[in-house]
Amino acid sequence: MKKFILPVILILLFVSNKMFAQGMMPPAPIKSALLESMMGTWVSQPYEMMGEKMTDEVTQSMIMNGQFLQVNVKSTSSSGFTYESLVIIAPSEDGTFTGWSFDIFGKKAISTYTGTTKDNQMFITGTSSWGSEIRNITMEGNVMIANVSFKMKDESGKEMPEMTNSITYNKK
């Protein structure tokens, strides 16, 4: 009987491992012409932000089997200040997404995002402890235009005047 049970157990283990492995295949990468057009490194034209002239370098790539859009931002001001952030966007096949932003200001500045895409545009709404933002990004070949609106709070929690920008990026 023992001679019969051991081979049966081994066969069952082999079959169950094969079945489990087949069920654990990752989903297909997210396919989006808009996201594909956003890949690469982009450099902004100088723009005004909180009294400073800023220039951004943004690198965007799909990561982890094409399931997430990773955005690395490095902004340099005319006075030498450097701002950096990491944005992770989780797109869906239907054009909706969620996301998170982490930057040099740490835990208190983590932003969460929701949004949609349509044709050559991405519409983003974000919130964090410092306030809210709306970004509308339009892709036009090797040009990316971000229209941004910020509603921020000062250190006492009082809302500051709304800031808006239209930032033009050129593909590097």
Structural overview:
- The chain has helices at residues 2-23, 33-38, and strands spanning 40-44, 47-49, 52-63, 68-77, 82-91, 96-103, 111-118, 121-128, 131-140, 143-152, 163-171.
- The chain has 172 residues and is α+β, with helices and mostly antiparallel strands.
- A 10-stranded antiparallel β-barrel has the order 1-3-4-5-6-7-8-9-10-11.
- It is elongated, with a radius of gyration of 23 Å.
- The termini are far apart.
- The mean pLDDT is 91.
CATH topology value: Lipocalin
Q: Enumerate how many helices there are, as a single number.
A: 2
**What structural category do the secondary elements indicate?**
alpha+beta
- Fraction of residues in helix: 10-25%
Shape: elongated
Rg over alpha carbons: 23 Å
Overall number of strands: 11
Distance between the termini: 71 Å
| Name of the CATH architecture | Beta Barrel
CATH class: Mainly Beta
- Unreliable runs: none
What is the typical, i.e. mean, pLDDT?
A: 91
Pattern of helices and strands: HHEEEEEEEEEEE
In CATH, the homologous superfamily goes by the name: Calycin beta-barrel core domain
